[in-house]
Specification:
This protein is mainly α and about 160 residues long. Helix content is about 55%, strand content about 0%. The longest helix is centred in the first third of the chain and has 29 residues. The chain is globular, with a radius of gyration of 23 Å. It starts with a helix and ends with a helix.
Length: about 160
């Protein structure tokens, strides 16, 4: 009886080679597209959050919110409709000043940021009536959109 082991080994080896070649090709294209080679020293403390978290806002609403942040809370980045870390750092300053946000001003939209945002939305008549639970569900997002629409109209 003839063993199938060599055939299986060749198929496995072929798959590994194909995956490696694809990874190298992707890495080469990514490297080539990245421009001049630069070296960066990165430490765990130096890594900044880069996520965009619009919490359901469309671009127009997010731009209005950014204009409000720029006018009131030291936001000085692009008014681009993308709520990234700098937008959220400005909002965290607002939430820390008035809405019992106790976390770091780090631009990360965690449960502490959302809880303070919920307090703001609930206590200022923006339509949030749910629990202060730190979960950015549909009620939080709808109230945030109501506030952002006000920002669009006024900023």
């Amino acid at each position: 009886m003839r063993s199938r082991m060599p055939a299986r080994s060749l198929v496995t080896l072929g798959a590994v080679v194909a995956l490696a070649a694809g990874s190298l090709a992707g890495a080469s294209a990514g490297f080539a597209a990245s421009g001049p080679a630069q070296q960066h020293a990165v430490t765990a403390g130096a890594v900044a959050p880069s996520a965009v978290v619009n919490l359901g806002l469309n671009s127009t609403q997010a731009k209005g919110f950014q204009r409000w942040l720029a006018a009131n809370w030291g936001y000085n980045d692009s008014i681009d409709g993308q709520l990234g870390p700098n937008s959220w750092k400005a909002e965290q300053r607002h939430l820390k000043a008035y809405w019992n946000y106790t976390g770091a001003i780090d631009g990360i939209v965690g449960s502490g940021t959302v809880s303070a945002l919920q307090r703001f939305l609930k206590n200022n008549g923006w339509g949030y009536s749910g629990p202060i639970d730190g979960i950015a569900g549909s009620g939080t997002q709808a109230a945030f959109a109501t506030f952002a629409n006000w920002c669009v109209a006024h900023y």
